[in-house]
Amino acid sequence: MTKPSPSLLSALAGALLLAACGSTPDRRALYLPPPERVGERPAPMVRVDLPSHVNHRSLRVRATDQRLRPLRDEAWAESPAEGFERLLAEQLAARAALPVASRVEVRLSRFEREADGVFRAIGHWRLRDGGTTLQSGGIHFERRVDTADGAALVAAMSAAVAATADAIIAATASD
Q1: What's the whole-model pTM score?
Q2: Closest Cα to residue 30, out of 69, 81, 68, 83?
């Protein structure tokens, strides 16, 4: 049996490399956009805990109660928890007069588009100053997202962050 020539092997390797490069689409990097108004007040420290299956770079939607499906062409530019923290801090700085040393803690048990096509954010928030809880409340946000499109998912997630900011602002305004 004859051995293939080195130039033939090089040509085949190059062709395979080019074919592989051409078949992998570029992933669109998504992030939660900043609020329309930027605050002049200092932003509070915000800490967000998300379920581990949600808090990583690939966008996923729930295909069934037991199975997640990644959106192949889209990925987060930052982790979802970091995006939520940044956007919530920016919204609160733009719209609320919170105590200077305060921090906001958010813990979500759900933050995803579920198999029924509804995006849900469910959890609790606390406004703290040192070791003292100043205010707290629940988060229950739902929005229908009929397509498993990254832009629609980001819009629903941004709206959930805005609703969380609204709840915190409403609770602190009543003091």
Answers
A1: 0.76
A2: 83
